[in-house]
Structure formats: C-alpha cells, structure tokens
Design brief:
With 243 residues, the chain is of the alpha+beta class. The chain contains 6 helices and 5 strands. It is a multi-pass membrane protein.
Length: 243
C-alpha cells in the first residue's frame, strides 16, 4: 500500500473534485451570451445553466428562471444533467469507501481489506471523472458549433462559461485521486524464512520434523545404559573371570 501521506493527498484531491462537480452542477453559467446592450433597461449578459437561465441587467438586477420542462430541453442538456448528478453520487460513494481504505484510519479491517477498499474507491473516482468529462465535452462542442454557425444572429450565440472550466478541473482532480487510490493495491510481501510462506507452507514444518527425531535419538543414546559400547562389556566379563 502507498504511504499514508500520498493517500491523504489523493483523498484531498478527490474531495476537491466532488465539491467542484457539485458546485458546477448548480452554477447557471454553463454558457454565456456575447452580446452586450447599451440601453439601461436591456440585459448586459445572459447565462444558461443546467437547471436555470439567468439574466443580468445594467441596473444591477439579476433574475433567474427555472427550467421546469424536461422534455423541451435538447438531448445534450438532458444527458449532461443526468451524468453530472450521477457523477456526484458516485464520487460521494467513493469518498465513503476511501475513508475506510485510508491507512491512517482504524476502521476498515486488515491492511489487505483496506487495499481492496482503496481500489474500489479509486474506481468510483475514475468513473465519476469520466461522467464529468464526457457530458462537459459534448456540451462544449454544442456551444462552439452553435457559435461558429454564421446564419444565426449574435444575440443567439453563446460562449462556454465558467461552470465548464470548473467541471473540467474537478474531473481532473477526481481522475488523479482515483489513479492514486488504484495504485494502492497490496502487492506480494517478502517474508522471513522462519515463517511459513504461501507458496510452500509445509517446508518449515518438514524441516522441524526432521530435526526432532535426530535430537531424540541422541538423547536416547546417551541416557540408556544398554547402549554402551561393546568394548566396555567385554572388559567387565574378563575382570570377573580373573577374580
């Protein structure tokens, strides 16, 4: 598993990504108009988001209108809505898994279980980053394509807003955090020779069983009186005959 400091850094990046994706989903400036009017009662800027359209007037008034009808929205806007909400949910679930997979926490099970949990959290963050990148790229493509169309008036042309920048940055944070968590897979650890290895668990036990009978034979040889050398027995018999 990676060091604790690197995991905390990955968790911080993922947290920034989740917060950024949530804020970008709610922001109304996914695309901003380029036309500026000079009259005091006309709007300076028009903004369109995923959930509302806002207008900023020269008098300082800022008004927004909610997009209540879902069926009247274009396909790319509906897809971006659903993907961003799903991305926030998946990223939030990844944060819960990441809190269990952190090495510095006491909950989450053993080190190996924490490693698997960290990999699952990294997968959630990577999936959430793609759920941000794909709809944001599609939305940006639609805005640029409409802007480059020459037969539309300038009042109907929009440019990408700040919410798209926040979305791309948040997706980068989520992707970086997910990759770091996925690299925290527990590898094969080298063990000492006196412990039982996973490849050959019977090897140290066999060695111990082989050494034990040899020690028992040596103890019996020196402790039993019947195991005396034959030379000593003959000398004792000869001494008795002489007496």
């Amino acid at each position: 598993m990676l060091s604790t400091a690197v995991q905390i850094l990955a968790f911080a990046l993922a947290l920034l990504g989740v917060l950024g994706a949530t804020v970008a989903t709610l922001l109304p400036n996914w695309k901003v108009s380029i036309n500026v009017w000079s009259n005091i009662m006309t709007p300076i800027s028009q903004m369109q988001g995923l959930w509302m359209d806002c207008v900023w007037y020269t008098s300082g008034v800022f008004s927004c209108t909610m997009k209540n009808s879902v069926l009247s929205l274009p396909a790319y806007l509906q897809t971006t809505r659903a993907a961003m909400v799903l991305s926030c949910m998946v990223a939030a679930f990844g944060l819960c898994l990441a809190s269990l997979g952190l090495k510095c926490t006491r909950w989450g099970g053993s080190h190996r279980a924490k490693g698997h949990t960290a990999i699952a959290a990294g997968g959630c963050f990577i999936l959430a980053s793609f759920l941000c990148l794909v709809p944001a790229s599609w939305f940006t493509n639609e805005v640029i394509t409409t802007f480059l169309t020459t037969d539309l008036p300038d009042s109907s042309k929009y440019q990408p807003g700040g919410a798209l920048c926040v979305t791309f940055i948040s997706a980068g944070f989520l992707l970086a955090g997910g990759v770091i968590f996925c690299l925290s897979c527990p590898g094969k650890r080298t063990r000492r020779p006196d412990y039982t290895s996973s490849s050959n668990p019977d090897r140290p036990q066999k060695k111990a069983l082989q050494e034990k009978p040899e020690k028992d034979q040596e103890q019996r040889l020196y402790s039993s009186p019947s195991k005396l050398p034959p030379k000593d027995i003959k000398d004792s018999y000869s001494l008795q005959e002489y007496v």
